[in-house]
Amino acid sequence: MLARCLASLRNSFYGTSDNYFLSRYQVAASTTLQMTLYFNIPFAVIWGAINFFMFSWKASIWDPPLVVAVVSPMVSAVWAFVEPIRVLLGYVGNLRERVAWLGGFWVLSIFPQIVVFLYFMVGQWAIGWFTLPIEVATSAIYLLLVLSQLLLSYSTIKRLIAKAMADFHLQPVEADEAAYHL
After folding, report:
1. Exposure string for 126-136, b = 16+ CB within 10 A, e = fewer
2. What pLDDT score does 173 carry?
């Protein structure tokens, strides 16, 4: 009984153990990925507000270097532009079981989003300004959320590809007629 539960847990995270799905109507979307994307939305708003107010507060009290005064708002603007697109690609790609949309989600998660979080964790300090512990903490939490979404979307993409292969193998083959009507 315990072995069956552990096998079921392993299969739900890494994908099914069989190469072919039993039915083309079997759901291949990831509930866990969908939940992380759902909770990503309010956390993105909170993270963006914290970073905006922290930068405004720090810039009003201490003079930032010119590089930081230019780069930080640009990095924040890129994040604010790309994050809704990234979440939408992951959300819709998972629900509609579209590999291409999840591929776009993957690309936008790796670059520029992970780079943005690394910049706010260590980049400002590296180019000559200080980073507050709350900036490091919120960026680290967000980075862990995005990395978990990457892992979950990877297993979901594998499952979607396996389902597409199974759908291909379930289609009737009429080789004689199909070959001559091309």
Report:
1. eeebebeeebe
2. 56
Q: Where exactly are the structural domains of the chain?
A: 40-59+66-169
| Residue at token pair 């109507």 | 25
Instruction: Answer whether 150's CB lies under 8 Å from 114's CB.
Output: no
Quote the DSSP letter at residue 112. Answer: I
Mean pLDDT across 129-140: 93
Helix, strand, coil % over all residues of the chain, rounded to 5: 80, 0, 20
Give the separation between CA 73 and CA 79, rounded to whole angstroms: 10
**Gap between the Cα atoms of 129 and 119, Å rounded:** 12
pLDDT in tens, 17-42: 554 444 567 888 999 999 999 999 99
